[in-house]
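for the writeup, i need someone to sanity check this before i put it in the appendix. the sequnce is what the collaborator sent (i think, or maybe the updated version? ugh). structure was predicted straight from it, no edits. if anything looks off just tell me and ill rerun, i have time this weekend
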Amino acid sequence: MNEVVRFDPTTLGIILVAGVVSHLILLVLGKKYDTLAFLLGAFFVFAPLSAAILVPGVEYIKYLRVYTSVLMVAVVVLFYRSWHLGVTSMTFLVWTTVYCGAVVWGPDPMGGALVKGFFFVVVLAGLFMASNIRSFDHLRLVLRITALFSAIWIFMVPAGFAMGAASFFYGRLMAWGLNSNRLGHELAAMLIIAMTVALYDTSKVWRLFGYATGAGYAMVIAMTGSRASLGMAVLAGVCLTLPLVRRPGVFIGAWTAAGLIGATVLHFASSEASERLGDLDLGTRFTEWQYGLGLWRSSPVFGVGWALDPESPRAASANLHSIYLQTLAETGVLGLGFLLIILSIVVFRAIALHRQAFGDQFRDHALRQV
């Protein structure tokens, strides 16, 4: 039996009024600043909120997330009239099209098209956002606005404790209905933005802002005990700081000291989360991985199109806890091979920039490439 979605008139009215006001503000700010930058910042707020089931009005926020992505694409196509994509972006867009289009031979083409269609729009919006960055000053502005909007989550976690919407489950932090892994993944993306501002911005005030918010994100991520989130943040941190390295010993020492300090603080804050991060046993993922490999074996070349969650009462994507295995199961060896080629292109282009550029110019070029 289908569920009837009920909308609270008061909440809906508030959101509609806020939407009208937001559009008016965008029109005013758009005369001086990049509208896309504000939309990107809004997306960084709406994306995690749309999955936070304890946030009032979450059923509306889901639509706001989708609307923000669609609006970004519409602004580029209808107003900026600039949709040129570079080689790397175009290649990634082709892979995304293949990945999303694979639902055609999946178990539920219509349901899969709806779910993956949202993903496609988000990717397209991100690529258009990157392609419309025309200068290093413009890039810094986009990063500042995104970091500023994202900082709301620095306050959301303590607010969750104050309002009874955050707690530790088996020693791992959960907040606003986001499980530990989802919370960690969302904040890892925000931490990468904060680190970029901290390392590359020309303003001391903004760099301090980046370091302060980045430290907050890092602590929350550690308390979630999410190994994938921590790995994502550390890998991004190494890639961001590597171009600035002049003395390898200082680089290694700084990262080692930061790791030891973080591990010590986390041990006293949540010993369970600390043990979880140090536990290299991946046995908790074997069930999902075996399921994903089973799907791939059933169609090794083209994949199954859309991996469904066998435990969900309705059609929903399975979380295989590995983007590579997810790609392999849904698009086969062809889709995974395509993805690996894209990643190789990014790496080789980054190496080429490293060889060609130097000094501050290199840092800016490397930042844009990332």
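The first helix runs from residue 9 to 29. The CA atoms of residues 229 and 341 lie 24 Å apart.
thx in advance!!
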